[in-house]
Design brief:
This protein has 313 residues and is α/β, with parallel strands linked by helices. Helix content is 36%, strand content 16%.
């Protein structure tokens, strides 16, 4: 056994712990507070987090021995990448582990929007038979606009195509040929807004994407569009979305992520044309096992100085 010392602050399922166990010592401190983290981080060579723990510049300042931070998932917006780079700390993630889970949830949200499934279930549990009030629309023959055609977006597109949808996509980081190879028609963002009956977002949160879907974007969309987002909170301007829902410009929205989490019983969450879920995109048994295995192996590789598959910085 080596003397690597690893801290887990958001839990890691057994499959990941089994990868670590022969090669390192690790402490599972799931739910640790920010203050406690600052007090103990100096003891560790590596830190493995999910989305809850904020790895700030202050944390990096206190982490004298830290060599690598691993994010058991895709998004790294909870890690100060500039601070990591400045202090020579490697950051790795597990970008492929949760793609299927998030794509499947997103497609479930699209189906729920189209057929009012949550509302129908809630009514039945209240003893109501609201059949005539629950007329929906079919996905078949509709146009699905995907903004961001990475792994998750491409997985979603394949599911939409299987339901007989026309798949169009906008991704500024892919060439038209690459978008076509992934099964979608390449379009400009304005064309996507104008044509799509359903829109799904699959983008990271960044300075460029924050508030990307605001008043101007909603005004350019097809009236009655339905919107799903299981990417990151903050990409959608939530007050603008609420206004578009109230005018009917947006017929419905299904949201798994929010600018502030948990969002509480906000006007957006409680809107009758909104389906809200508590950031469960990656919450499947299979994806959590894959993410844990992938990040454990990647963190150990970083500690050993071996080639990395998913280095962020």
């Amino acid at each position: 056994m080596t003397n690597f010392n690893i801290l887990l602050t958001d839990g890691l399922v057994e499959q990941g712990q089994a990868v670590l166990r022969p090669a390192a010592q690790f402490d599972d401190r799931a739910g640790i507070s920010a203050d406690e983290l600052l007090q103990i981080i100096g003891q560790y060579d590596a830190l493995i987090v999910r989305g809850r723990t904020k790895v700030t510049a202050e944390v990096f300042d206190a982490a004298a021995k830290l060599k690598v931070v691993g994010r058991a998932g895709v998004g790294v917006d909870n890690i100060d990448l500039q601070a990591a780079k400045a202090r020579g700390v490697t950051v790795v993630n597990a970008p492929t582990a949760t793609s299927v889970a998030v794509a499947e949830l997103t497609f479930g949200l699209l189906l729920s929007l189209a057929r009012h499934i949550p509302r129908a279930d809630a009514g039945m549990k209240r003893g109501q038979w609201d059949k005539k009030k629950l007329k929906g629309v079919e996905l078949y023959g509709k146009t699905l606009g995907i903004i961001g055609l990475g792994r998750i977006g491409a997985e979603l597109g394949r599911r939409g195509a299987a339901f007989g949808m026309t798949i169009i996509a906008h991704d500024p980081f892919l060439s038209p040929e690459e978008i076509t190879e992934r099964g979608a028609q390449p379009v400009t963002i304005d064309e996507l807004y104008a044509r799509a009956d359903f829109i799904s977002l699959h983008l990271p949160l960044s300075a460029e994407t924050r508030g990307m879907l605001g008043d101007a974007a909603f005004a350019r969309m097809k009236p009655g569009v339905r919107l799903a987002c299981a990417a990151r909170g903050g990409i959608i301007d939530e007050p603008a979305l609420l206004a578009a829902l109230n005018t009917g410009q947006v017929a419905g929205a299904a949201l798994d992520v929010f600018a502030q989490e948990p969002p509480g019983a906000s006007a957006l969450v409680t809107h009758p044309n909104v389906i809200a879920t508590p950031h469960i995109g990656a919450q499947t048994t299979e994806s959590q096992a894959r993410a844990a295995e992938h990040i454990a192996a990647e963190v150990l590789a970083a500690l050993r100085g071996e080639p990395l598959r998913w280095r962020v910085v």
